[in-house]
Amino acid sequence: MLHVKNLSGGYNGYSVLNNVSFSVERGELFGILGPNGSGKTTLLKMISGLLLPEQGEVLVKSRPLQSYHSKELAKIIAVLPQVSSEVFAYTVKEAVALGRYAHQSGWLQSRYADDEEIVKEAMKLTGVTKYQNKLLNELSGGERQRVFLAQALAQEPEILLLDEPTNHLDISYQKELLDQLKKWTKKRGLTVISIFHDVNLAALYCDRLLLLNEGQINIVDQPNEVLQERRIQQVYKTDIAKQPHPIVPKPQMILLPDKSETVEELSIDERYLKTSDEMIEIRSPIPLKTMSSAVIGAGIGWYHTFVNCHASQDHQQELSSFLKEKGLNPSNTVGMLTTIQLEDAYSQSFYGEGFSIFVVVTTCIEKAADESREVKHSLNLVAGTINTWVFINGHISDEAFIQSMMIATEAKVEALRDMNVTNQNMNDSVTDGTLVAATQTGVELRNADSLGKLIYSGVYKCTKSAILKNKMRMLND
Ligand SMILES: Nc1ncnc2c1ncn2[C@@H]1O[C@H](COP(=O)(O)OP(=O)(O)OP(=O)(O)O)[C@@H](O)[C@H]1O
């Protein structure tokens, strides 16, 4: 659909672009990225024919751009520029209708019939019909941006060139606009070439990205290839980290702010543990990076407060209301439920070389009727819900979080086996809660082996001790 070949040039002998070549297929949503001043707008101007290159050429549908008459070109390429002020005296409908100019063949030709329908459709698609009789200067920046998009769509182009189309739009309109553009590329074969400053939006929506750096192409490829941590750090000269999008298989770049305040090293231990009849609670002075299976706050996140509530209800909504009653914010809290008396919880700190962990376990042990046993009162013990918390005083990687969860589970199962407790939850493990939370301060724990061993022995000992406490109570009751 569009071939850019060895394009070089700029303004009045001042060279901006240097030997830029790439192709865009019909129906692609193609993003142009690059730092301020890297030449993105200059490239778009050359593709639209607004600026002549010094060298190289642009082929539109295999024909040189320069060989098109301007009206002929306007039927193929529409441009949504950064907002200009000349059109502010038009009404919305008039501004959108300007998009039909290229399709009118004679002087004073009536716009009605087909043109009228297309203008209406363009206004509907961009949600501006309700403002159609308002003047452009009576609209907000985002509303105006949508009118310009409607104007470009009314042109019924095959290629749409956009310079930061989401500028001025709130997140809901950003999503709506890009969803719509994506749909048109897929359903109508519209080709969209768009400049983006937001690399994450570009990664979410574009089929391919071109990264410009100082007027030259750094890479043209799929988003996952283009958005490599080191590449983006070098080109944009900033600190970022790459993360997968939580819902769709696309990369996202996370800005890493300068740490203006130095975070004091923190050790979570017995001093932070509060036990009452209603709940066991740990409130950390700083948020801890947490991975857990819990009733509230499950998954990965940063949390301040960790509670294990004594409750008969196991309903997320009720736990949430309970936390609010206690003055805790559910969005900062990881919440679990247990039916045991909370004084039967077992907790202990364990020390490795230069780091420590703090483990808290609640186990619910029940007597189970065993018809096969002849001896009455023999204790056939079955485990109910077991909640295991492991606090790591140190800095660990995502891999270490996963390994820690696995090791904590292995240690729990081993302790149950050694205490002759049948783990009915092996078949129903969703009721168990496991949590690994790291302070992410102090030492970086690179030695997965020594961390793993400490977690294993810590969880093993705490699970056994919690079972013993629970068993003693049962025998005494
Ligand atoms: N009309 C002009 N005359 C002279 N130089 C210009 C003109 N327009 C842009 N430039 C220069 O060309 C270079 C590239 O500008 P361009 O607008 O293409 O960058 P950009 O990547 O779109 O930047 P931004 O992200 O800031 O919009 C800049 O150094 C700019 O100062």
Biggest sheet descriptor: 9 strands, mixed
Kindly report the name of the CATH homologous superfamily of the largest domain: P-loop containing nucleotide triphosphate hydrolases
Query: What's the pLDDT, averaged over the residues?
Result: 87
Helicity, as a percent range:
25-40%
Report the bound ligands by name, code or SMILES.
adenosine-5'-triphosphate
What is the molecular shape? elongated
Cα(first) to Cα(last) distance is 81 Å
Strand content: 25-35%
Task: Give the name of the CATH architecture of the largest domain.
Answer: 3-Layer(aba) Sandwich
What is the CATH topology assignment of the largest domain? Rossmann fold
Can you identify the CATH class of the largest domain?
Alpha Beta
What's the alpha carbon Rg, rounded to whole Å?
32 Å
Count of individual beta strands: 21
Count of domain modules: 2
Structural class, by secondary structure, is: alpha/beta
- Count of helical stretches: 12
Extract low-pLDDT stretches: none
